[in-house]
Write a structure and sequence with these properties.
about 0% strand; about 75% helix; mainly alpha; about 240 residues
Length: about 240
């Protein structure tokens, strides 16, 4: 972001917007990454991905509360299906090395997507007044100021593996820069509900890569409840796409 500072500075700040910037920084990256990291310590990547599928539904609820968007019948039905699906996937999640405490892990994952949905709603407002790169830069700077002091409370690893370095670099570049700029640009061009629709692809991609890279296996009941969650997301999100058309 420092190398790209000419693209987003000087910031066209408007009075009173500081509180919205504080909210989005607290929600994401701070709360989002803390809850997501804790969640993935206790649940599997597949279950975590299915819970992340509830993001467009929570965006709809957040839009109803903060943007006064009235929920429709399809949204309420989608919420019901998704809640049943997530509860079932959590209840039947087996305790294993990949998911030692699935209920606790899934709770943290739910908190992470709750923070992300609030981030999307308030970012939607800011994208109407600020460049998407500026919003992403402020997120990263705020996140760095929050997380750097925490390093003093945790011991450094005795050895650093190449795979760990690659993972950190991937998260920094692909998530911290590319993904957030792309997400913010989408919020600038589309409604929060329309952007949330595409996040329904998260559980599919997560389960696929968990199978390929981590060798995770799911029981039949988990697959059924995860399918119910995905159906709930589709039911809730499709009206938004139809309305756009």
């Amino acid at each position: 972001y420092a190398a790209l500072h000419k693209k987003w500075l000087p910031l066209p700040y408007q009075r009173g917007d500081w509180k919205f910037f504080v909210i989005i920084v607290v929600c994401e990256p701070c709360l989002f990454f803390i809850c997501e990291t804790l969640g993935m310590m206790y649940t599997s990547a597949s279950q975590g991905g299915v819970i992340a599928a509830c993001l467009p539904i929570l965006m709809g609820v957040a839009g109803w509360i903060f943007l006064k968007e009235k929920p429709n019948v399809q949204l309420m039905l989608g919420i019901l299906l998704a809640v049943i699906g997530v509860a079932g996937a959590s209840w039947f999640g087996s305790t294993s090395e990949a998911a030692p405490h699935p209920l606790l892990g899934n709770l943290f994952m739910f908190c992470s997507i709750l923070a992300s949905s609030l981030y999307a709603v308030f970012t939607r407002r800011l994208t109407q007044r600020y460049p998407v790169l500026a919003i992403a830069a402020i997120q990263s700077i705020g996140g760095a100021l929050f997380f750097l002091p925490l390093n003093f409370f945790f011991p450094l690893p005795e050895s650093i593996h190449a795979s760990s370095v690659f993972s950190v670099l991937y998260l920094s570049i692909m998530v911290g820069l590319v993904a957030y700029c792309g997400f913010n640009y989408s919020l600038q061009q589309l409604t929060a509900g329309e952007v949330g629709l595409f996040s329904s692809l998260v559980p599919i991609a997560t389960c696929l890569f968990a199978f390929i890279l981590l060798g995770e296996r799911l029981s039949l009941l988990q697959n059924l409840f995860m399918t119910m969650t995905i159906i709930g997301v589709i039911v809730a999100a499709l009206p938004s796409r139809a309305g756009r058309a």
